[in-house]
Amino acid sequence: MPKRLRDNGGDDSESDEQNDAENEDEALRDTLRAVNASVAAARRRGGEESARLMAEATAAAKVTAEATATRIEVEEMKRVVEQDRAALEAEKASMEKAHTFQNSTIVLSVGGHRFETSRQTLTSVSGTYLASMFSGRFPLTPNAEGAYFIDRDGRHFHYVLNFLRDPVERYKLNSDLTEGQREELMVELEYFGLLDRMLPYLAQERVGQSLLGRACVDGTRRALETAVAQARALVFEMGSTTPFLAEKFQDLRWVITDRVVNGSPVWAAVGGKYFMFRSKRQMMVVGLARHCVEGSYYGYMYNTEKDADVAASMALPSDKWVSCFRTTLASHYASARRVEDSPTGRSGWVYVPEMRITAVHGLHDGDPAMSGALRQLAALA
Fold first, then answer.
1. pTM recorded for the entire structure
2. How far apart are CA 333 and CA 87, in angstroms?
3. Beta partners for residue 358, in sequence order
4. What's the count of helices (H) and strands (E) in the chain, helices before strands?
């Protein structure tokens, strides 16, 4: 009996000890959980604090950057305003000086010849010697008489001033000039940068004079009449008065060249793409550079007149110009009158209605070469 009690007592003691150990373990776990929760809370608080501090630092940096940018922008605006103000003051001063210079009479002494004019006249054509000289960009000092000296021949300088005073289109050089005077004038015009402006067709005039000279040597009526007709239309415009031709062929301006094809001068359209020449069939043809060769008769337009002695466009019948479909507006080509040159009546060529040729520039009768040819022609009458 006692032994059983002792054994039971021993079992109760071990159970109590086990319970105590379990309770201690649970308490320890609770403590650890509490510690871990505290640590996690502390970490969260630390993260939130770090994020807050980072946000505040970012905001402060942004404010600083914006303030710096604003300061730089304000300083740049101030600099631009000051620069514009300085430029405006300089421009006002320049304009006041130019205004005074513009409205004052300018006296020129050109090779001892006195001329009175204005700055407006002297600078009316840009890119010239006089426009540069009186532009206001260079300091000029008049002589004791208040004149600006130019060391050139003043005998022909009035031609220069008359050209500058009137629109270029209205100016006509005096035809009474002798050949020697004309040569002297050309030297002066080249010096002042006005040769091409005052004599824009000088090269064509020289071609015309050469044609007349050769005709005078030939001495026949045919050669003289042809050369006179050519020299009177060194530059001309050609086109239809109706909207018949394509735009690229309408109202073309043609200038004579020193080139000869099939015994006749070649005219070049302004722009250099098209040429007018006499074909091997003795007809005037309009074509490209590849067409304009000896023996060729191809092109885009031609005059059906086959008179071998007529080699001047102004002398050709205006109702005998024909064109192909490349030259004619499509809307007019289908209904145009065909050239009946085949047994079937079919042709790719059509007549150009109301064709007109207008002379723009040619040698006048007072030109020495022209007057000589005319006198020789009159002697053959």
1. 0.65
2. 62
3. 237
4. 10, 12
In sign, the C-alpha dihedral spanning 186, 192, 196, 198 is negative
DSSP 8-state code for residue 352:
P
Q: Which residues, in sequence order, are bridge partners of residue 260?
A: 265
Q: 346 near 338, Cβ under 8 Å? A: yes
Query: The tokens 């060391």 sit on which residue?
Result: 151
∠271-317-379 over CA atoms, to 5°? Answer: 100
The residues, ordered by sequence, that sit 6+ positions from 327 with a Cβ below 8 Å of its Cβ are: 245, 246, 249, 286, 300, 301
Task: Give the integer Cα–Cα distance in Å for 352 and 251.
Answer: 13
pLDDT of the chain along its 381 residues, tens only? 444 444 444 455 556 666 666 676 677 777 767 766 765 666 666 666 666 767 766 777 677 777 777 878 778 888 888 888 888 887 776 666 555 555 578 999 999 999 999 999 999 999 999 999 998 888 889 999 999 999 999 999 999 999 998 866 667 777 778 888 989 999 999 999 999 999 999 999 999 999 999 999 999 999 999 999 999 999 999 999 999 999 999 999 999 999 999 888 999 998 879 999 988 888 899 999 999 988 888 899 999 887 655 566 777 888 899 999 889 998 888 888 888 764 444 568 999 999 998 999 999 898 899 999 999 999 998
**CA separation, residue 248 to residues 237, 244, 353 (Å):** 13, 11, 17
Residues 6+ apart with CB under 8 A from 360: 235, 236, 237, 253
Q: Which residue has the tokens 């002042």?
A: 192
CA distances (Å), origin 347, targets 3, 320, 339, 344? 149, 15, 6, 9
